[in-house]
Each structure stands twice: as C-alpha cells, then as structure tokens.
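Folding problem:
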Amino acid sequence: MSFTYRQKHVKDYGTYGFRFQDVLPNDVANIFSLGREEKMPGAVYDWDGLKRKDVGTYVFQYTLSGSGRLEIADKSYNVKAGEAFILEIPSNHRYYFPKDTEGWEFMFITLVGREAADCWRFMKEQSGPVLKVPPNSKLIQFLLKIYQDTYDQKITDAYFASAKAYEFIMECYRFVRNIEKATKDISLQIMKALSFIQTHYHEPITLDEIAAVSGFSRYYFIKQFQHQINMTPVQYLTKIRIQKSAELLRSTSSSVTDVAAQVGYANANYFNKVFRKVVGVSAGMFRDSKDVVG
C-alpha cells in the first residue's frame, strides 16, 4: 500500500490517498481518500464538482467545528458543526471556505464502488445532501476510528481498506434509518462540545475550555449537557478516554503508562484508578484477559 500523506501543524491533521498494489474490481467498495483538516481565516479551499479529476467517487464530509459553504445547483447551505454533506463526483456542486468565516475543522472520507453509489443515493432520498449527525453517533465514532487506524498505519492492504469502506457504508444506512432518534434533543451548542471532546480527549482539556466551545456559561453548559446527554461533561470525557484506552490496550503493545498519556492522563496511577472504577479491573488485567468486555 502507498499513502499520500500531508502533515499539518500537529499530528491530528493530515490527508491520505489510498493506493494499493492489489487492484480490486471497480464495483467493489473501497476508500479513495481520507483526511482531517482545519482551515483558518485567509486559507484557500474551494472544490468544484464539475472540474475534479477524481470522477466516480463519493464524498462524506463532516464539520467538527466552525462552518463552510456548500452550493448545489441554485441552493446554498452553511454547513455547521455537527453536520455532514454527501456528494457524488462529478456533479453540479461547489464547497468552499468563505472569506468571512472564522474557521472550519472537518473530516472527510471519499469512497468508490457501486455500493457507495447506492448508499449515497439512498441517503439523499431520505435526508437530502446535508445531514445533522451528532459527534457521539456510531457513524462519526467509526469515521474517527478509520482515521486513527490510517494514521497508525494499520490499514495495510486493499482488502482491509475495502472492509472498512463496507463497514462505513453500513453505519451510514444504520444512521439514516434511525435519523430522528439519533438527532433528538441535541442542540448545536452541545454538538460543538461533543466534537471538541471527541477530537481533544488526548489533551489536558478543562471543563471551562469545553464550556467555552459551546458558547454557554459554565453553569448553564453543565446543566444543558447533562439534560441532553444524560451525563456530566466530565463523565462523558472520562467515558471517551476509557473507551480509547481500551482500544489501545487490546490493539497495541504500548505500556499502561504510554496508553494513559495517549488518552490525556499525565498520571498513570490515576488513570489506572479511573480505569478500574469504570471497567471493573485494572488496565493490565484488562489487556491480559480476553474475557473482559470493554
């Protein structure tokens, strides 16, 4: 496999092109490209769906924070945090970073294959080109997982990449069929906070920083978060960190101390205490026992 990789400022951002020695049939779903980017004021970012070379591809782009603009024929959409758009290339569309926008942080995955085409057609029929998708949904969680696996160079051949593409397509179907339930009672402000936690859990973020992202005062933010998510912001942050640490413990040989640092805990002893409280066993025992479910 060969990656086209672009490193940007911090390790969180990059763009990958998927090229393999083994070429699968054209109708088989696979990943064409994947990335996570952040555009700041003054950045040039503009894609015309009728002028691109990557024809026969299907784009899913999700806004983590900020906003961008999407134009389809004579309609215009301001794509905000917690929203995704789906597009076929080529088609009459344009998406870009407006000059008057403060910033746009997003993730995208571009697929190929007949199954991707069918899925995108179904999603458009059910919800239109723009979808409201909570950052804690299984769909976005899986997109983040594909990105992390790609960054860690775990997607090693065309067959593994194809399996991930099919899983993503199935998560798209699952989400769209339950879209009203999935998006119920989650405000844009709380979506922004969820996205921030999902993408910065490995950093020493504070409750005040999370509240500031939402635009609410600390007190009102805690109240609204608990009402909409059924747990406090700190409990949610802990949940994400422990989930990520469980994945690392099972899929890597990193020490418990290293895993703790990778999920935002500077003190390994404290991490182990939190892990045991949430999971029921220590991090080391969790790694050694395949019977323990994380």
Summary: The beta strands are 2-8, 10-19, 30-39, 46-48, 57-72, 75-80, 83-89, 93-96, 104-112, 130-132.
